[in-house]
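Predict both folds.
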Amino acid sequence: MLKLFKIIADAGEATAKYPFAPFPVSPGFRGKPELDATQCIACAACTTACPANALTMDNDTATGIRTWQLHLGRCIFCGRCEEVCPTHAIVLTPTFELAVANKDDLLQKASFRLQDCSACGRPFAPAREIDYAMALLRQSGVAVDEARRAEFACCPACKRAATVARDAVSQHLSPEAEQ
């Protein structure tokens, strides 16, 4: 009988002390996603990649604000948002205890300012996304001046109209067009 008690004492405890002690998670565990809004450029890549539609982005053109939302009640913790984020603003944490008393506590929000078009004045894209594109150009060695910045700060409709007008003028002035 004493031999049995010695074997049990040597074996240790078979169960975890959870919830009285924190439960250790294994490396690579995919828990609650968290957004670092200071790194986010509001490009919406995460919302496109989310298979559960837990991530959404809404544009309010009247106020010039893009709102990012994460509904943790819908999240399946697949990690696609973390994979596609170009600035690593979303990371999956080891937090897995998400029980709340109020359903609204499962909703996370962040707001971003939209850039106004330099031609028509309507908001069209997040200012941070344009700044990020300009920084990537500088990093690759492309000279970035105010003319290039104005080109990036123009909405697609105004860019298209300017390109069509420029092409019409260049075709009209080219020697081949006269023949």
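Second protein follows, with its predicted structure tokens after the sequence.
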Amino acid sequence: MSSTEINGSSTDTTQFRLGTRDKSVGWYTPTLENITEVQRDVLENYSHLAPDRVIPHILEVRDRAWEIHPYPCIGQLRFIDLTISRSPSYPIILQRLKEGASLLDLGCCFAQDLRKLVHDGAPSENLWGAELKGDFLELGYELFRDRETLHAHFIEADIFDAEGPLKQLERKMDFVQIGHFLHLFDLEGQTKASERIVALMKPEKGVLILGQQLGSLEAGPIDSRSGSKMYKHNIESFEKMWKEVGKKTGSEWKVSASMDTGLGIGENKRTWDDPKSRRLVFEVERIS
């Protein structure tokens, strides 16, 4: 869950103060004119919202979430992004899930990607969602109106808690989805988190980690407005990190990654981004 997508390029420190519920900040989008056909399909045909209620419902739930956790991803309505369905491997993942494979959405926010999978035919019993903020899991039920019908497993967990709730999933996952999550940490933290993710996966060839995060044409550490240390990868540094993770875990991974101007970067509306910011999209497959 991306609570800090801000790299501190602005000189206006009041405008970019994380944690404020002031809706004049740059990362609060007050209105929503349109949504994609895929998003509308899920909300109308899975959540059974009337067409004229879809956008008002999204905004109502967003404003409730904003009062609890006023993060950029909430203000910018990232919780309706259905990123997993855009993965090149999505058809394979969906078929494997139908055949009994398991998937963990790590840092799942409102677990929107899990709802997309279920809508497309994945058995919800094979799906897991983990979030540091349990409030988001509750809001997910309210956004998608499926508290009585969804049978996915949700846990409130910290990736760095080796003895926490995630321990029950060790060596059990075929797929792990991580969206807007790893970039919250410095390089050491990202490496440790990736090692932990490897421990959650079945120790066999073909298991797959997929997701996206904030990246940069020039890899390196940054200071976020929240005061935390972050690290933005480019493709080369991301590959290098996974080679290190492989050495530390006795495994080998093939990285397929690309960078683009998604996340609104290309629209030049995110005044906190530097010109080198990019979205890093990746699939990481175990090959030995």
